[in-house]
Amino acid sequence: MIFDGHSDIFIDVTIKRLLGETQVFKNHHLTRLRKGGIEGGCFVIWIDPPYDKEPAKRLAQILKATKEEMAECKEAVLVHNIAEIEAAQKAEKFFILLGIEGLSGIGEDVDQIHMLYDFGARHAMLTWNEQNPLATGVQGDPTRGVTELGKKAIRILQKKRMIVDVSHLNERSFWDVMDMTEGPVLASHSNAKALAPAARNLSDEQLFAIRDTKGLVGLNSFNLFVSQDLKNQNVDNLVKHASYIADKIGVEHLGFGFDFFEFLSTDSMKSYSDQETSFTIGLEDCSKVPELLIKMRAAGFTDKDLEMISGGNWLNLISRVIG
Ligand SMILES: [Zn+2]
Prior knowledge:
Blueprint: E1 2-7, H1 9-18, H2 24-35, E2 38-46, H3 55-72, E3 76-79, H4 82-90, E4 94-101, H5 112-119, E5 123-125, H6 148-159, E6 163-165, H7 171-180, E7 186-187, H8 204-212, E8 216-219, H9 223-226, H10 235-249, E9 254-256, H11 266-270, H12 289-298, H13 303-321
Parallel strand pairs: 1-2, 2-4, 3-4, 4-5, 5-6, 7-8, 8-9
This protein binds zinc ion.
Zinc ion is lined by residues 101, 168, 189, 259.
């Protein structure tokens, strides 16, 4: 079983539904996911630029599109716990854990987390790259961390047993979250800073801190996080991130958070990168995941390791945090 711990497919669903399409998941994504052997994923609500200027409006649009899409989709199901994942697997349906990639859409009203939970979300990040009323993302003021309101938000997330994800936080916010969380912490789509010094990647100290919460790090295929150097943005170097993280903190703390982006428009891409492509050579989209696994096996990962990284560790995290 392969679980992709970070996918923006619902943004593509929103963009296409706003243009009048229906069955976007089935018509544009399912075949590729099946080809890659991916059976489930954490699909996030991401307030995509340029719509982040009015985040509440965009959040409402994405929620509406997601709800309408899931209502007509027979091939996939939103899941809210391990029992529902097992039921979906039995029914051979693609299962989706709904996440929130940045809470900018709720502004200062942290009580809206309850609304997002009721909608189905079981995962959240305080920010995307921006700084917002709750915390500071990697593109915000480096001296600013999690605000008092953000701490309140984390307490609500933990009380509701939602997964707290630190992937987009700046370092200050990361450590603020670490200071106050009790359960496992997730960095759903970040690689090792020792191999690629992107702000979105994790230092060794951060990797150790996540391990100490019994948390999880999701391997990211987005090329900028594999290498800062265009010619090294290939699958072999992504495998090196996997080996590095597994060696540092243990294979039981590693999963996938592929962050495939090739299906989104270049406008989204241009909003935060000079590069024209998002994909790593050799892992251009989710259908190529089996080739990544072959390379990981060649690099020394055992079948048992790959089973854990591909999905076992994710299911374990979901069962411990959400239930
Ligand atoms: Zn992201």
